[in-house]
Every structure is written in structure tokens, then in C-alpha cells.
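C-alpha cells as discussed.
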């Protein structure tokens, strides 16, 4: 998911603000997904952990992008 999102915005023509807005939207979507999955499965299940790691990756990228501003 992250790689797909970033590859879309890594091509020319997009401003840093566009990239940040896209990451924010992806974070919101992944957070909602994690909340939904977390309410359906035990928190130790593979799907919950995988989704949590994906959210962590997006948050880390968001932090890196904001430091670069």
C-alpha cells in the first residue's frame, strides 16, 4: 500500500504538500482499517500485527516528510 501510494506521488508534478496530503489520507484509511480489524480479531493475530506495521510505516514516512519541510 505505502509503496503504491509513494510511487504514484514520486513521479514529477506533485508538490510536497500534495504528497503530505496523500500520506495523511492513507494514514486515516489505515487507522480505520486497523480499528475495524482490531475489533474483529485478537490483537496478537497476524492480520492485526501486519496492519499495525503498515500504519507504522505510513506514520514514519509522514514524520520524515515533515522533517524535510
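Sequence:
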Amino acid at each position: 500500500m505505502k509503496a503504491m501510494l509513494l510511487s504514484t506521488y514520486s513521479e514529477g508534478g506533485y508538490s510536497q504538500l500534495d504528497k503530505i496530503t496523500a500520506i495523511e489520507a492513507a494514514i486515516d484509511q489505515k487507522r480505520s482499517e486497523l480499528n475495524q480489524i482490531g475489533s474483529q480479531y485478537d490483537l496478537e493475530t497476524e492480520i492485526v500485527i501486519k496492519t499495525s506495521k503498515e500504519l507504522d510505516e505510513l506514520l514514519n514516512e509522514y514524520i520524515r516528510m515533515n522533517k524535510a519541510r
